[in-house]
Amino acid sequence: MLALVILTVATALVFNFTNGFHDTANAMATTIATQAMSPRAAVALAAVLNLIGAFLSVAVAATIASGIVDQAKITVPVIFAGLVGAIIWNVITWYKGIPSSSSHALVGGVLGSVLVAEGSSGVLWGGLGSKVVAPALVAPFVCGAAAIVATRVALRLTRSRRADSTATGFRLSQVLSSSLVALAHGTNDAQKTMGVIVLTLVAGDRLAPGAGVPNWVKVSCAVAVALGTFSGGWRVIRTLGTQVTTVEPAQGFSAETASATTILASTFFGFSLSTTQVVSGGVVGTGVARTGEVVHWSVVRRMVGAWVLTVPAAGLVGAVAEETVSAFASATLGVVIVAVVTAVILAVLFALARRTNVTADNVLDGIAPAAVIDEPVVPILAAR
Amino acid sequence: MTTLAISTYLPAGDLAKIIAAVLIVAVIAPSAVSIAVVGLDRRAEGSPQVGAGLVALGVGVLAALVALGLYALVNR
């Protein structure tokens, strides 16, 4: 059982790492696109804030898929299989450069593995509606509407101002709002993985039910999400920062402010939203708000399609993983084999990604020239 | 019908408060930055004291919003 627990904890940390690099774009895509900070400085700042955010809240780490599956029926192999589903979907969407929700991928993965292990009686379908479907239907529109309002206010109030003052003011302010998004991401998403690991330890009889989060779990989750963020999900950053719409400093500020406010207000009232969907709604909203601006709806449609597919697709992978693990007489052997197969799939995806490598150096290639304005406004952080 | 279905899962009262908070910040935050931008302009036009005052006002409002955000994050 110990080997099983260790493998599952390691897999949870890998998920947290993918969560970090997949979601770097949420906080920093528009900051990079408007050149408020250099790409490397932006992801470094996001990584530090994710690290701090992981320790910030005193709230108990949210347990895995709480309210969506029957927690009493969760076993260590079920958690492992769910994580495999989430990781593979995260890496596939990263490879395709699509901003999709890591949290929903985790929910989907666990849902699929629980369905195979326990049948539909293990799933709380009402929870799926309240924690996944309803927020996903509302959050992007709330943030998008706020981004439209913020963008119009910003553009109206500064239309007779000097262009350099306006750009400087909004770029500096955008660093602030992006930082809040990064901090909130660290708090929410690192704690989700802490919850996964705690549940694994409890299910594996390594921790008493109701015990707090051990310090080593807090530190390892914080470091994993920070390292993931620092590695920079450049493919997703390129999509969100440059391919949805052209983001000028006032727009970048508006999108990130609307996102930060939506996430923080929802957090305060007890709703857990997908940071990715909120920020994507903000970016689309800010594009819609600007007269004459072009929103590339084909990219938006691709994103929304991925959002719809996330839970079922991660669930399918989670189900296959659980079915495979349970086919072996020894759960540990099954988990090892699935872990090896997963590693091979990830290696293939990363190898494919290298053919069209997106890095800090070329992430802004193809951006509309109007959005590329002189030097970053935070020079002290801009050194590469 | 969709609204009815959503309100089954998200309490309408809380949702209204979130939307109100988000829209209020969506007006205040860019206004604060715009005040700071006016301040930057004034400084460039040779009124350093007025400019610095406007920049300080804008930054102060933004700082207050950030403090509110941190409060929401820590006290959820």
Can you walk me through this structure?
The complex is a heterodimer of chains A (384) and B (76). Chain A is built from 13 helices and no strands. With 384 residues, chain A is an all-alpha fold. In chain A, helix 1 (2-33) packs parallel to helix 8, helix 2 packs across helix 6 and helix 5 (125-157) runs antiparallel to helix 9. The longest helix of chain A is centred in the middle third of the chain and has 41 residues, at 163-203. The model of chain A is unreliable at 369-384 (pLDDT under 50). With 76 residues, chain B is an all-alpha fold. The longest helix of chain B is centred in the middle third of the chain and has 33 residues, at 12-44. The radius of gyration of chain B is 18 Å and the shape is elongated.
Explain the layout of strands and helices:
The complex is a heterodimer of chains A (384) and B (76).
Chain A: H1 2-33, H2 39-56, H3 76-95, H4 102-118, H5 125-157, H6 163-203, H7 215-231, H8 234-243, H9 249-268, H10 275-289, H11 297-327, H12 331-355, H13 379-382
Helix pairs in contact in A: 1-2, 1-3, 1-6, 1-7, 1-8, 1-9, 1-10, 1-12, 2-6, 2-7, 3-4, 3-11, 3-12, 4-11, 5-9, 5-10, 6-7, 6-9, 9-10, 11-12
Chain B: H1 2-9, H2 12-44, H3 48-74
Notable features of this structure?
heterodimer; A: 384 residues; mainly alpha; elongated; disordered C terminus; B: 76 residues; 3 helices; 89% helix
Short description:
Chain A has 384 residues and is mostly helical.
Mean pLDDT, all residues of chain B: 87
Helix content of chain A: over 70%
Largest sheet of chain B: none
- Compressed to H and E, one letter per element, the order of chain B equals HHH
β-strand percent of chain B reads under 5%
Global shape of chain A? elongated
Average pLDDT confidence of chain A is 88
Low-confidence stretches of chain A: 369-384
Amino- and carboxy-terminal Cα gap of chain A: 46 Å
How helical, in percent, are the residues of chain B? Answer: over 70%
Largest sheet of chain A: none
One letter per element, helices H and strands E, the order of chain A comes to HHHHHHHHHHHHH
What is the strand tally of chain A? 0
E-strand count of chain B: 0
Global morphology of chain B:
elongated
Q: What are the segments of chain B in which pLDDT stays under 50 over at least 5 consecutive residues?
A: none
The greatest interface here is: A-B, 55 and 38 residues
The secondary structure category of chain A is mainly alpha
- Report the total helices of chain B: 3
